[in-house]
């Protein structure tokens, strides 16, 4: 592990001729308000103010990732800055630094969501409360509209990886200037696009962070975008009206759970691993009048296409995995369903990727897509948008630790692809034993996208990662909980893949202590109806 002194020397050596640091205000370093005098190449510190303990109100106009609610915060130094690494780049970011007596000596970068150009204030508040100095970036644009990439290739690069790396490097320098020393450890925490950013950091910039949390990573970015288009076309008619009404989603989840709940030998309302579930939606075929609890033949076919995922019309080869059985909807009042990314959009989700990033034609018609030729072209031209490199040797050699997690009922980022990536890394790096020295995956049955759902989904991944990085204690399991009306009603261990949690046979199935992490054992595949 590179120590802070050696890293500081290397960092300052690389920028030394260009970096001007104002005279420090005593042992604590530069006073907060004086940080605007910092001179760093392509960086402008626009404000630096001491924020007293109290409540922090998110600035207006900060986009979808901003928390609109005022949150209690401890005192901190708030630094607002902008990076311009290219003539077409405008990367806004903030760095928050606790006072010396409250600082744990560590730094935490936090991730973004979707294509959102917004500072992640909520995540920064969480990091600050735990004693971290923290930073977040808007990734170089404002809002979630993908038009920002039209005619601006450098802004696409900023979003894909450059903004976070620059924010990370600069934030450490700013922390050093204020605190008088570099952070002893650096962590990154992100989910969804933040999980994608996490894997990008491990792959491209293995020296940025000592520990990384990649939640539900949307790292197979290009192929997942093709899958969004596939699923939308499968569930909509040519005129854009729905083939599959959203009202029928709860019946699908109910049918899938009923068919596959006991594959793991336990009836608990959860599908342990949907890859082993062969629920066929034809069992819900309407036998008379159409209604919310049954499917028409056209709807059955639409659901099958979503489960199967996109395939090459020419060769039949899979392009991307399908969405898991059990992810359709978590009950009538579900927040996470297929609606958000598959059914409700008026056009295929993220169609802007094709119009503004790839073909530069705002009028491009998704019906003209060539699934083979255009996929190859997009991966050749915009391959940097994905984070699928299987060789993490540099991150491992440096001593980095990577914790990845996902929910088996995720309706946004299909969890099968997360597992496929982990397995590919294990294969490329010599097997599970070798990869688990630095990279562990935890799968949560019944958990949705980054949390929520009927399964236990609340757990402290950061505490486990800190123990791993700082004390060498690798996490074999994470204890997750589920709550109803604010009261915990179930706990379960999430085991380090490929191990799984299995009931010991005695005691409540709602208590984690009654489960063990064991090697997965083959179980009969439940098949219901259909072909």
- In which order are the strands of the major sheet placed? 1-4-5-7-6-8-9-11-12
- Uncertain ranges: 1-26, 522-531
Q: What is the overall silhouette?
A: globular
Mean pLDDT: 91
Structural class: alpha/beta
Strand content: 15-25%
Secondary structure: helix percent: 25-40%
SS summary, helix count: 14
Number of strands: 17
Terminal-residue CA separation: 55 Å
Largest sheet: 9 strands, mixed
| Rg on CA atoms, Å | 24 Å
Indicate the topology.
Layout: H1 4-15, E1 43-51, E2 54-56, E3 71-73, E4 76-83, E5 91-97, E6 106-110, H2 121-129, E7 133-137, H3 153-179, E8 185-191, H4 193-204, E9 211-215, H5 221-235, H6 249-260, E10 278-279, H7 297-308, H8 339-343, H9 352-358, H10 373-382, H11 393-398, E11 401-407, H12 415-428, H13 432-435, E12 439-444, H14 461-471, E13 477-484, E14 487-495, E15 499-503, E16 515-519, E17 527-528
Parallel strand pairs: 6-7, 6-8, 8-9, 9-11, 10-17, 11-12
Antiparallel strand pairs: 1-4, 2-3, 4-5, 5-7, 13-14, 15-16
Helix pairs in contact: 3-4, 5-7
Any overview of this molecule?
With 531 residues, this protein is an alpha/beta fold. Among the domains are: 1-183, no CATH class; 223-382, no CATH class. Helix content is 29%, strand content 18%. The protein is built from 14 helices and 17 strands. A nine-stranded mixed β-sheet has the order 1-4-5-7-6-8-9-11-12, with helices on both faces. Strand 6 (106-110), helix 2 (121-129) and strand 7 (133-137) form a beta-alpha-beta unit. Helix 5 runs antiparallel to helix 7 (297-308). The radius of gyration is 24 Å and the shape is globular. The chain starts with a helix and ends with a strand.
């Amino acid at each position: 592990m590179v120590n802070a002194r050696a890293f500081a020397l290397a960092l300052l050596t690389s920028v030394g001729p260009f970096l001007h640091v104002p005279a420090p205000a005593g042992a604590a370093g530069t006073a907060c308000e004086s940080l605007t005098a910092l001179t760093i190449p392509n960086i402008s510190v626009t404000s630096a103010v001491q924020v007293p303990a109290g409540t922090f109100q998110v600035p207006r106009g900060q986009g979808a990732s901003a928390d609109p609610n005022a949150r209690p915060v401890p005192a901190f130094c708030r630094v607002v800055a902008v990076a311009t690494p290219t003539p077409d780049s405008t990367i806004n970011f903030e760095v928050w630094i606790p006072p010396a007596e409250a600082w744990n000596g560590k730094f935490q970068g936090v991730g973004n969501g979707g294509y959102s150009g917004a500072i992640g204030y909520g995540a920064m508040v969480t990091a600050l409360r735990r004693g971290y100095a923290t930073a977040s970036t808007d990734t170089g644009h404002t809002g979630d509209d993908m038009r920002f990439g039209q005619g601006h290739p450098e802004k696409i690069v900023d979003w894909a990886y450059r903004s976070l790396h620059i924010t990370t490097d600069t934030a450490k320098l700013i922390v050093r200037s204020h605190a008088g020393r570099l952070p002893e450890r650096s962590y990154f925490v992100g989910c969804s696009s933040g999980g994608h950013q996490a894997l990008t950091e491990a792959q491209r910039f293995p020296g940025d962070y000592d520990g990384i949390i990649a939640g539900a990573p949307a790292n197979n970015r290009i192929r997942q975008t093709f899958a969004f288009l596939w699923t939308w076309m499968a569930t909509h008619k040519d005129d854009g009206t729905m083939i599959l009404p959203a009202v029928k989603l709860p019946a699908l989840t109910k049918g899938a759970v009923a068919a596959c709940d006991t594959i793991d030998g336990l009836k608990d309302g959860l599908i342990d691993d949907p890859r082993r579930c062969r629920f066929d939606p034809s069992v819900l075929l309407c036998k008379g009048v159409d209604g919310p609890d049954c499917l028409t033949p056209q709807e059955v076919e639409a659901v099958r296409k979503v489960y199967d995922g996109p395939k090459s019309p020419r060769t039949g080869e899979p392009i991307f995995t399908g969405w898991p059985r059990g992810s359709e909807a978590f009950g009538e009042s579900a927040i996470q369903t297929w609606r958000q990314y598959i059914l409700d959009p008026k056009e295929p989700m993220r169609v802007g990727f094709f119009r503004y990033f790839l073909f530069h034609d705002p009028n491009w018609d998704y019906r003209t897509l060539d699934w083979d030729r255009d996929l190859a072209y997009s991966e050749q031209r915009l391959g940097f948008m994905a984070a699928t490199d299987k060789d993490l040797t540099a991150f491992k050699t440096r001593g980095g630790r990577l914790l990845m997690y996902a929910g088996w009922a995720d309706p946004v980022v299909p969890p099968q692809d997360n597992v496929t990536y982990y397995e590919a890394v294990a294969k490329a790096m010599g097997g599970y034993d070798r990869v688990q020295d630095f990279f562990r995956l935890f799968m949560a049955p019944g958990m949705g996208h980054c949390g929520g759902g009927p399964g236990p989904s609340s757990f402290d991944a950061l505490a486990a990662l800190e123990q791993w990085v700082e004390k060498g204690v690798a996490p074999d399991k994470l204890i997750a909980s589920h709550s109803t009306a604010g009261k915990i009603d179930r706990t379960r261990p999430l085991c380090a893949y490929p191990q799984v949690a299995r009931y010991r046979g005695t005691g409540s199935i709602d208590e984690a202590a009654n489960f063990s992490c064991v090697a997965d054992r083959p179980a009969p595949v439940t098949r219901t109806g259909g072909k």
